[in-house]
Amino acid sequence: MSEEQKKQLEQQLWAIANILRGKISANQFQDYILGFIFYKYLSEKLEKKANEFLKTDGIVFNEIDENSENGKLILEELKKATVDALGYFLKPSELFGSLAKKGNAKVINEDDEEQIQSTFIMEDLANVLSSIEKSTMGSESQDDFDNLFYDIDLNSTKIGRTTKDRNDVIVKILTSLNEIDFDLDNTDGDVLGDAYEYLIAKFAEGAGQKAGEFYTPQQVSSILAKIVTTRKSKLKSVYDPTCGSGSLLLRVAREVEEVGHFYGQEMNRTTYNLARMNMILHDVNYHKFDIKNEDTLERPQHEEMKFEAIVANPPFSAKWSANPLFSNDDRFSQFGRLAPATKADFAFIQHMIHHLDDNGIMACIAPHGVLFRGAAEGHIRKFLIEDRNYVDAIIGLPSNLFYGTSIPTCILVFKICRENPENILFIDASNDFIKEKNQNILQEEHIDKIVNTYLSREVIEKYSNIATLEEVKANGYNLNIPRYVNTFEEAVSIDVNTVAERIQGIDAKMNEVDKTIASFCKELNIKTPF
Questions:
Q1: Domain count for the chain
Q2: Closest Cα to residue 357, out of 321, 307, 412?
Q3: Residue 443: CB partners within 8 Å, gap ≥ 6?
Q4: Tens digit of pLDDT for each residue in 142-189?
Q5: d(CA 266, CA 239)
Q6: What CATH number is associated with residue 373?
Q7: Do residues 72 and 139 touch, judged by C-beta distance below 8 A?
Q8: What's the pTM?
Q9: Is 276 helix (H, G, I), strand (E, B) or coil?
């Protein structure tokens, strides 16, 4: 698929999304649009796989008679095979195309003219979405599909006052989606996955403040992904403890040939559902991802595991319980202090470091406060530097990169086994961006400069510097970037005597002008203006 065709697909999907625009907010109508796109994808993926299984028997999946004894036997065998391969099953009558055509039925009126009339399909649609989940019962994929369509409320009056109104809207969306070719046979690129990411970004843009809960801008994700895959072509595992829509995990996969397994945890149920859909839509088999719906700090779900790559964009300065019982938790006990209840930034960092493998790299986003705040946070920061020496690099980013907040942020890079244990790299990339509408944007050149400077650890005037651990110690373990990267611009030197001479010259010229004006006034026999 060409770049032009890809753009066309994105525009088609966004146009369909706009069917609900104005009825409900962006963070609400994303549940319907992304959910229906996902249902269409599952349908087409299953039909394609089923036809592969049936090819040797000369049978076409959507032509199977579901009510005949032979048809039932075939479907029963197919269900076992497809649940094992894909994790779920649908009957031919439950396919997206079948339901869309049923909803968009053709009728003949009294004048023998053909017309399109919406047929009531709301109950059928609800049953199909439920059927997808039920088909996984008792299988390995059950957890990955459980309550996956929970947020699609077909009875919400927000999408239509009456049942008929709601049905008409749903039929319009399904019909429009049915006309789009997802081109699943295209193996050259993840076209649908990219289009899905595009929609997630568009919804985040419209959601404003709430967008930060589930979306990290792709430019920032790209930096994190490139850093944690440094000099690696394959990863055994990648983990995101606040995975949101899963986009950051998937971005890491773009930087290597293979990721063995994706792990994540997300507290918000709606976003958790979105993350699982996002994984499957990017053709990540249910065997290869394990995403949990729980509070990462209070109830971690991957307790004994270590990961080769860890990426995260935790909620900035979030609150957590800071329960004294956590002082005995392996994630926090070695530090001697817990992060304050009003600022959980270091609690997330401690959690991630606990899960970082010896050969792994961890890169996370944080507000600048973690670099210099004192008390418990200062104690934790000192321990990370002096006792463990895990801090590899600090990268300052421009302000206003993230939806919902304009504050400047930074990337913290940690390693258990560091190649450069005697120093810490500081990069100040806060001034490298372009402005688009209300957001600051990192371009490819800005991303490449950050990543290349990290890889080379090059000292660049007013941009990057390497600080020894002794220098950091002398600064009281304060990691505030301006202490190490001098971006001060010297004021232009002004020669006061030269300025005074120029003023005197101007005064002399003004005196000459005054004399000329005075002589003209005298000739005209009028008063001079001075």
A1: 3
A2: 307
A3: 219, 433, 434
A4: 999 999 999 899 988 888 889 988 898 899 899 999 988 887 776 555
A5: 12
A6: 3.40.50.150
A7: no
A8: 0.87
A9: helix
